[in-house]
Amino acid sequence: MINFVFVPPQSDVTRAFAAQLQNDVEGLVVHVPESEAEAMMCLAKADAAFGALSPELLRHAPNIRWLHSRQIAPPPGYFHDALVEHPLVVTNTREVYNDHIGAHILAFVLALSRDLPYYHTQQLKGRWAPKPLNSDVVFLPEATALIIGVGGIGAEAGRMLSAFGTRIIGIDARRTSMPEGFAEMHGVDAMDDFLPSADFVILTVPHTPQTENMMDHQRFRRMKASSFFINIGRGLTTRLSDLVVALEEGHLAGAALDVFDQEPLPEGHPLWSMPNVLITPHMAGFGPYLEERRYKILRDNCLAFVKGRQLANIVEKRSWF
Fold this sequence. Notes:
By secondary structure, this protein is an alpha/beta fold. The chain has two domains: 2-95 and 290-319, NAD(P)-binding Rossmann-like Domain (Rossmann fold); 98-279, NAD(P)-binding Rossmann-like Domain (Rossmann fold, 3-Layer(aba) Sandwich). It has helices spanning 12-24, 36-43, 55-59, 81-85, 98-113, 116-124, 152-162, 191-194, 217-222, 240-248, 290-306, and strands at residues 2-6, 28-31, 48-50, 66-68, 89-91, 144-148, 167-171, 184-186, 200-203, 228-231, 254-257, 277-279.
């Protein structure tokens, strides 16, 4: 029998997952400890676990071989040194947000391309104030979008945006295959070469040691003044103070952001009052069926683990993703 532990704190969702797993996966014994002390006792005989394992909890799990993260990109500290060095395999829930966040990116692009931030501002002021004919509009069939991070989310966003005739160029550290709708795919080393020609720079990468502050003053200066920056990945991938300066100095036409280096974005932050910026409060992934999708990944991996098969969504621990 395989012992599987849901690491506390528990929630209605984890308790429901545990009960369903016990019914769905033969050969799995599921434990749902409610306290850290109880978790230590359960981990002593655990083969696998769900959640986060601190260094102390990991020391109490001598036989553990697999840890499943509820999040695609766990918070800093999840991949501590002891976990990285440990032989256990870590998996995550990537792919559950592809369509929801892809649609959010598309909404950002469409809004920016039609200058909707400006017109929404005029609406709130009760003003009928059209700009000169054809000004501040991006014609998508002649536009280029540079998508940095072509996992499931980036690939889906590119597929959807390509339907408008936009040329899609992908940048990714791992992917070499060409997703549907993409014109080109390149490695990270080529990113700076393509920033000057992009009308939309779309960042979907997770926060890792390699991506922290990857969008900074120098890279914003490489973008053309008519371009837009979109970030739906993780806030710490972008030096927000540099973005503010780039917008204030006119090096960018605008931005749309769902994630920030500090959340909530502080009251009075300059971004709140910028007329060419769209802000959503880290909700690009909102949509139906998320828990069902998370459970399916967990269940399928439990079935594979019990049968000694390869797990899906394996994380490169040193890269946190």
